[in-house]
Amino acid sequence: xxxxxxxxxxxxxxxxxxxxxxxxxxxxxxxxxxxxxxxxxxxxxxxxxxxxxxxxxxxxxxxxxxxxxxxxxxxxxxxxxxxxxxxxxxxxxxxxxxxxxxxxxxxxxxxxxxxxxxxxxxxxxxxxxxxxxxxxxxxxxxxxxxxxxxxxxxxxxxxxxxxxxxxxxxxxxxxxxxxxxxxxxxxxxxxxxxxxxxxxxxxxxxxxxxxxxxxxxxxxxxxxxxxxxxxxxxxxxxxxxxxxxxxxxxxxxxxxxxxxxxxxxxxxxxxxxxxxxxxxxxxxxxxxxxxxxxxxxxxxxxx
Length: 303
Fold this sequence. Notes:
Shape: globular
CATH topology: Rossmann fold
Distance between the termini: 21 Å
CATH class: Alpha Beta
Helix content: 40-55%
């Protein structure tokens, strides 16, 4: 990969694992300096109680060719986020790319109505999914707009078109993902006068660390899970959304996407990047045209 982002400063909020880690590493591969934040460190695990750490992510950024800087931050704590941005300003003097990938929910109550849901946890999920993004944008965007050309990427689950007509698993999950889409739309309006761009990016069926573990496979043999869960054949690696973010951040005409909802598969066709296996999975089109249509699993023409 060319160093198209050499000299750029990025903050990936929520970079401990999954899409956040994949995005941070790919930004590093493109030459960026990447601040990676999260709550899981070598010394303490977050409520998710998983082994991945922000220090590991920073090391992966370094190995990819960038500069990774791990900072422990709970993005629900405004003072911690303010201190993070002040540190970036002091050390770098600028911020070019902000990726809001914060979520960190430990579980989702699938197919639960609002009255059947655990109210305390549902409200906590909304704080994790929405309040964290608002707090981070509040403090980070004044630094980002100091220089023209800044990019904000809100990472969600589902495109605006898909989510607008479908119930997303439960009241609180549905609401949290709708809010992320709307945040990108609102930020697009607020950033436009400052020559900056905001988008919402949705990966497809992501082969995150937790997903691979749940299916009893690894990145090396993940296709074996498709024998038991056929539609898993459309799954994408965390590098794929990372390459989507790099493509956006490297595009001098990125403002054409301002305020829009985008998917990894959609952007792969526009920019020509591929997943690590050389394919271009288009999970959201597949979901509608194959899985929801009740057709047998067949990724021909979809990756």
